[in-house]
Amino acid sequence: MALVQTNYPLKKLNSNAVKERATIPVVTTHIITDNDLGIVEDGKQQPVNFKRIVKLLTDPHSEMLFERHVHALIKMTKQFSKGFPMKDLVQLFKILNICADRVDANPVYEKPILEILKLCSLPFLMEKASDELVYEQIVVESISQLGYLMRIPSSEVRNQICSTLLSFTTIKSKQEFINLKPTNLKFNNKMIEISDISETLIKALALLETDLAVKLKVLEILQHFSKNSAKNCDQILHVDGGRRICSRLMDADPSGQLLFRSVDILWNLMDKGDTAVLASQLNNLICISQLRDAFVYEMTQGYSHYDRQLRNDLLVIATLVAYQCPQAPFVETGFAKQLTLFATFQEVKSHNVLVRHLKLQTNHEDFELRKLLINILVVLSKDRTVVSILSEGHLLLALFSFVRANDQKAEPRDWSPAQFEELQLHAMASLCTLCPLMLEDYMTCQGSTRLLLLLEWCVGPEEFSGQGNSFHGTGGRGTKKAQMRHCLRLLRAVVSVGDDNLLQDLTDQGAINQMIGVLNTAFNQRIEEHDAIEIEMQTDILFILSCLCEKDIHRKELFGIQGVELVIRYLHTDTRLLNSGLGHHKLLLASIDCTWCCIVGCFITEDYFLEKEGVFLLFDLLEVCPKSMHNVILGCLLDLCENPKTVNHILAWRGKTGCTAAHLLCQIWRHEENEIGVKRDNQGAIFDVRQPLMGAIQAEIGTKPLPASNVSPAIADVGENMRAKVYSIFCKTGFSDLLGLTVEDHVTITVIEKYLDFKMGEVWSETIQELQAENVRPVTPDQEALEAISRAIEERAMIVSTTQQELVEAQKNQDVLEEQEFYAEIRENQRQKEKAIADFTEFVARTSNFNSLKEAKQKQEISIDASRIHPTYNSNDLYHETGIPKLTTTVFSGKHVTALNSSFHTKPKLEGNQKPKFIKHITI
């Protein structure tokens, strides 16, 4: 602030007069600002009557006064040199639109438009903090109007619109205002996202085909908008922005900015927007051709670091299109053939002019290019038409050049050991997808020999320290584990095809013995000590052995006793590890599958497997493993039952709780019926004699007329659950004389025994219902046969139901009998307790009352005499007295007699058959 001070000159006094001090009056009642004095520019906007300007522009009497129009507009821009308030934006853009409509007829409006657009690049001004909410919609519509002004056919105006938008969203205002506040960048960018300016700029590209400078400016704005805003990316994609930009990639541009900015926008759309929508927009001949031309140009003509990065970005965009749209025209445009050429020219010599003088260096960009080329060809291999192109380009031969032992030494122009390892693992991962599609090329390249040699190197004593840098090298740092993992993956992918020539080739080269040796040497520690990668490799080896030995007895003999011992070791896996998350469940399934494919069917391996208690191990797993594994185990056991020795092992097995195999199979049957919704009563007996096996799902499907080639629901049910396997195992073991069964098990076995009859009844019932649905009446003999079959099946179901009821009733009677016996035992125990108490009471009475003692003595003597055969025996001359005379006891006395203490008058409490305690001894 500047303060106004008034200085008055001092008055000259006479010589004899006293000098007076000058007084300086200070104005304190008013504060005069710098703006009032003109020291600084006016920071407060002067009121402008926008309505008068609009009327001046639109009134019929003044619409031809062009000079006055321009003067008024220039004056307005000078007054709003710091920016426009939000409240005036409606009138401001109304004026802009009026001028934009007249600029074609009269170019004098172009300069005012440019001046107004320059001011629009400044942040809008707020009088209150709430103006952001109050005028939000107006600001959004105003920004949209800026995009609509691209219709003005003036390069300067269009260029200024782009500059305005760029400044509005990037430059922060540093000016200070007294009563107004500018909007911040966050608010400005938010308004840009809400408006449709991105859509408008994309549409405006069609107007800029001949104006390269403005087009580059528009692309720069779109590049900025799409960089950090997903909403702007969605708006661009909404108006087919991906196709519009990609279709003009290779337009003439000496500066090279067009290609760079277009690729950057596509990258932003891929990163922030919907990749599926972007890929669908690029899925056409024009866009793929443009991507091809741009990539080939950068590949052959680019030399700088910038060009190599741009080339890789183009390849990533092409990979996205190939992944999202498998039917994209890569073959029709020749892009697939050129990609194959660039991916193989270093390993496979070619005379094509595109690669004649092309050389890849060991820098990071060329290294990434090599991986990207392999990756896009793997993605393109989903299209069967591309496979022939890959075969012609000898892609497998180029990739198999990496399938070899790693050398620590590298030539100056070769890949470094770390780079070679990463390319090697990437190539092997790609071969897992490509080899099953190109088996002839695989055999031509001697792929099996290369893989087995690499596997031998992986388990060999040669030292190697893996880098483990890439995704494919996870867990392989310092070891050969990554190479071994991908080698086994590739072998697994190849053998899973089931080609006989390939399997025979592997067998002839000793793959079976080599796999068994790898398991015995490389994984000889306890299973609990293995990590996830080691578990995966062991699973792959077991799967490879299963594929090799599945259909050939001779190969099962090669698997031999050593292989059986190996499988037995894995069947001993602790089932508590199945939920460890490391893959033990896969390893256990692979072990069971290996048992099924490599052991079952060969008498030598089967007998040794039985000798090693393999059946017991399978039933142990069946008892504790999850239900998802039951089907495989039951299938293995069923095929193993073809060996007559297996039945005895099944009957001899006992579980952890002592249950038998028959009891376990009955439990599995009941659980299976419970899951498929078969109707059973509380005791597990048949509830519906007409549908004794039908589940809820089968009942919902019902019977529909189907072609003869389709499987009926009754037949499909056989393969969808495990009841058929359980029935087949019982057919081998028998349905009677089974130990360890409860009444519930006996009830279940009655149904299992008639499973085949009931299933045949279901099939005949479906046949009858299909004939009725098709309004077909069989001839009379066939009709009578169908009725007889239906009655027979129903009668069998009734017989089974009756048998089940008899079993349940017998169990109830047995329970009642056992209950009565239990109660009788309780009563007998109580009677014995009462008798012991009565005997003790009588004994106490005899010892405490002499008269009672005499009576007891007399009764004893009378009882003894009554037991004699000759009552007059004591009158005989030879009679000898056996008792001790004058002995006052009622027991058969010996030398020592134990009597109660005379002070013991109370009756002791006796528990059970406890005898009374005596504390005094008398010697006779």
Q: Averaging pLDDT over every residue, what do you get? A: 84
If strands are numbered along the chain, what order do they take across the biggest sheet? 1-2
How much helicity do the residues have? 55-70%
Count of β-strands: 4
Note the overall shape: elongated
Molecular structure report:
The structure is a single chain. Helix content is 60%, strand content 1%. Helix 25 (481-495) runs parallel beside helix 28.
Provide a concise account of the structure shown:
With 924 residues, the chain is an all-alpha fold.
SSE topology:
Elements: H1 34-37, H2 50-58, H3 66-79, H4 89-102, H5 110-120, E1 125-126, H6 131-134, H7 136-148, H8 155-170, E2 181-182, H9 185-194, H10 197-204, H11 212-227, H12 230-238, H13 241-246, H14 257-272, H15 275-282, H16 285-301, H17 305-324, H18 335-344, H19 364-380, H20 384-392, H21 395-400, H22 417-434, H23 439-444, H24 447-458, H25 481-495, H26 500-508, H27 511-522, H28 532-549, H29 553-571, H30 584-599, H31 603-611, H32 614-624, H33 630-640, H34 645-652, H35 661-676, H36 696-701, H37 713-720, H38 723-733, H39 743-753, H40 755-773, H41 780-848, H42 850-866, E3 896-899, E4 920-923
Antiparallel strand pairs: 1-2, 3-4
